[in-house]
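A quick aside before the break. I want you to see a complete sequence-to-structure record at least once, exactly as it would be stored in a machine-readable document. Don't worry about memorizing anything.
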Amino acid sequence: MNWLNQHEVFEIEALACLKSARLLDALIFGGGTMLRLCHELPRYSVDLDFWKLNAQDDQNLLDRLVRILGKTYEITDAQLKHFTILVEMRSSRFPGRLKIEVRRRLTDWEYEEKIAFSNFSVKQVLLKGHTLRQTMINKVQALMSRGAIRDAFDLEFLLRQGTPLPALDNEQIEQLLKRIEGFTVNDFKVTLGSVIESDLRRYYVQNGFRYLKEKLSARMKK
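That is the input. The structure line, written in tokens, reads:
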């Protein structure tokens, strides 16, 4: 297995650890890794992102994460950041560090029960995950705010899965299209290309986000 395959095993193992300690009871799994492990997104994602299901003391949650995960892994960073609870860890059995972040802001998130799995692991984890509709909303916001190429890739994946775009005005659509047009050949070859398989890499280097741009442009109001 290459290091991304091994890292995915690390992710599943960490989820199983959190599940057995019941730390996942009040957390919602989301982001690119959720799409990868629960919906077979064809790109690798290296962090575990969670959103809180209900109000809880953030320092207490951080302490519990460190205590449980520290029994199996070496904790290399743990802190309450302005927007997130962060825990980073490593293991001699895996090549890279794994970062876990929990959003501190509490909002009504749309979620459902999902099974997280990997073709490289024998474990499966039942958990709460954002619905595809909620993930679409989150990814649109992420692309507008940080402009990462992985967010555009995930949006195109969601559209191909039949997930509709949220309500957008022309200004928002123009902002998204501007973000997409700003990606360079190097972004497709290296930044995105390093986390997708070679056949998809060739497709995106040649075509970019043509499908996504067509869907966004079709939503423009005359």
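Two observations worth writing down. Residues 3-20 form the longest helix (18 residues). Residues 134-218 form one domain. We'll return to this after the break.
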